[in-house]
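Q: Neural cell adhesion molecule 1, please. Structure only.
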Amino acid sequence: MSRPSIVYTAVVRGKVALPCSIEPPGQDDEVALVLWYKDDIPAPIFTIDARGSRDLESARQTSVDQLGTRAVFNIANKPSFLQLDPVNEADGGEYRCRVDFKRARSINTVINLRVIVPPGEPAIFTESGKTLRGLAGPFNEGDPLTLTCKADIGKPRPTLHWMQENRVIDEKFYFDVDRNIVRNTLEIPQLNRSDLLAVLTCQAANNNITSPSQTSITLDLNLKPLDISIQPPERSLSAGKSVELVCTSSGSRPPAVLTWWKGDQQVKATKEDFAKGGLSTSTSVLVFTPTADDHKRVIACRAENPSIPGSALEQNWRLDVHYSPRMKLTLGSNLRESDIQEGRDVYLDCKIRANPLTSEVIWEFEGQELQTDKNKGIIVSSSSLVLQKVQRYQRGWYTCSATNREGVAISNRLYLRVKYSPRCKETQRRVYGVSLHETTSIRCDLDADPESEIEYTWAFNNSQGKRADLNPVTASAHRTSRSIINYKPMTEQDYGELLCYGTNEVGQQLVPCVYQVVAAGTPDPLENCSQVNATESGFTIECTEGPWNGGVAQSQVSFVAEVFNVDTQEYVTNVTVEGSPVFLFKELPNAENNDAGYRVQISALNHKGRSSVTLIIAHVLNASKYTQPPRLMVIRPVIGIILGLIITIAFVGFFVFTLLKCKKYQAQNKALEPQKNSKKSVTVIKADSLNSQMGPSPLSCSESLFDLERGPDILQPSGLASNEMKKNVVSTTVSDYCEDDDRGFSIDMFYKPALAGTDTPTEIPHNQTTVSPALSRQLMEQQIHGGPIVELYATLRQHHGSAAQRLDHLRLHKGGLSTATAATTAMGLGDGARGFVSVELVDMLSTGNQVMMLKPPSNPFHCDIHYAHDVSIAKNNFVFAWPGAWWSQWAPGIYCLGIVFILCQLNTQCIVNGNVH
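A: Structure for Neural cell adhesion molecule 1:
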């Protein structure tokens, strides 16, 4: 059973209720199922199933995805209805509600839903496509105006009208079906003053349910000035007497800009007055004293609205006086700009028109006055400038100025272009590092005028003086000042100099560009590394590059920083950067618990390898240091003074006790020393010279091996070694005295020959502490020819009787140290700091030799204790390094010596400034 169709109307984005009665025909009947259908869709779009429920309120409601949560069936209302909120355009159509009862026949209700789509909001455009809204313009008075209004058509089709003051001024519109829009174009032939601030409205409507969509604009106009006048009227003027001229103009919007002109030259007004807002009057006052140079000139006042071309009004006031000099600078009449080349003669003309005549003419080049200088070929006269055999550096801007009794005048600026043959640009790469059988692109950048059509010639000079011409790769058209050649050295003789010549229309390059092709290598280590910033979870480190990057392009060099925990020696993270060696570390794990800091290993890297490592200790900000409860820091002044005295006395006691023990051990050491004439020397390397070019420094064992208070002798970096050094080098026994000392220390010696023409290191066999005879003979032969012969490295270690372990061998490389399994102390005497022992260990392992370095305090009352990287620390082996000038910082010195004293008491032995304790 069905009921007649019902028509409902709804508006898009509104809501609608579609009724459906669910009242059963009989009192003993109930609703079992409510189904909603739309159009010809066979499946229901909304369902209420009460067959498994106690009542209709608890029945399950389901809807298709098209409706979603927009559809709700209201059973409380009489009659019940299906509400759609919000309504979509696609909701329009025929709906059928079928109600199934448990006993009675089903009832169908048919509803036609018509959905109205209001037209879109009108948009107003200018002829150029610019969108207008609110205050539109400003438009110029007298100009035509075309405005187009567009709106989406909607459903049903709307009307689109132009209105002004509630009256329709244009009702012609048409539909663009392809774009689904309606359009109305309003054309105003000419804007008048009466159109100022007029309101124009575009209105679209397609129903009487919703308000029409409309957009309004207000026209803003620029208006022309109406009149202009100068007071007083024209009259004769006497030279030297002031005159005041007043110019007035009205009717312009915005106010007219008044300018004063003397002939074609603008004159600055003495005073200006502009009324604000609306139609206004502008006033400008010019006060000047006429002179003879103003004769027959015209003073003009011009009123103009700059926004309206051609709106200017002008009033003239003719003068009867003289005029000042007028200047014009040109090339000589027989010269053409394109013909001026380096080495030719050039002259410039300064044309002067003045009354009275000029008394002086000045020539300037790039702002600097020129004087006659025949040695440089510069000749200055009143009306011309001669440049004999003009040079490249003389190209630039020239001016001339003239003076008479009325004033000074300056000519126009003239740029003198001087063409010249090619020459090398200074800022270009001159050294290229490349391996054998490797291709590199070498660029030749030239400075020339003109730059176009430069012809390039390449040649190669090897180390034997042979020369060969090469073929370049043609540069791109927009870089005619550059030529590129791809070069691949095949043998050692292919290393040498590449020469680049250029030729342009002026001539051939006189001095070629020289590029050195060398064997590529690893870069120098980074320098001047320092921590520049810190946060609670990270820090920033900046370095500067070493002087040598391996001879490769800068883009092929990268920088690596590896971070290790100082306490645990564990790897944390790493950063690789290019361009500039600036390393930013963020969000380091467990940074808030790291008080000791991080050890950062920094190196430079190119395709040939990695530089030696630069070490730096970095810290993060520890917030807990700044968040302790204030009450813990409260100490009464008297108690603070007492505590300070106690601590000071304790530290002094520690210090005195330590010195006494040092003297005691020194006395014992002297008793064990050999005779003076059995003196032997070993060489130790300064920590700050591991990557330098200086040679090592010898340390004498004559009085005490550990007496570092003596100043070191210096081994010269080149030339023949001294006789004493020769003895040290060829000795087959390193040191009977220093070898297995009763004091529990030994010295392991390793030699590296500095052989000419090779970087290959010589390795000493495992656990060898003496120099073999064959090596001694080789070293002596090299010593005869001069130059640095050998570098000797010493390892200081502590042992305990027969339990002492020997060290593994070292692998030594030029420019730095690396090792397989050795713990090595690089000891050196610091310049100007007596007894300074520096420890720098990188990637070194050993179980029987442990090293600790106590560095000088970096700030007051703060002492850093650092362990060498990857060294297993034993509790009874320490080396303490302290600068000889520690007493210059007595507070940090006592503080750190106290720490050393405690460490020495907890362990078997300790070395302080080289003395056993």
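A: Brief note, in case it's useful. The two ends are 115 Å apart (CA to CA).
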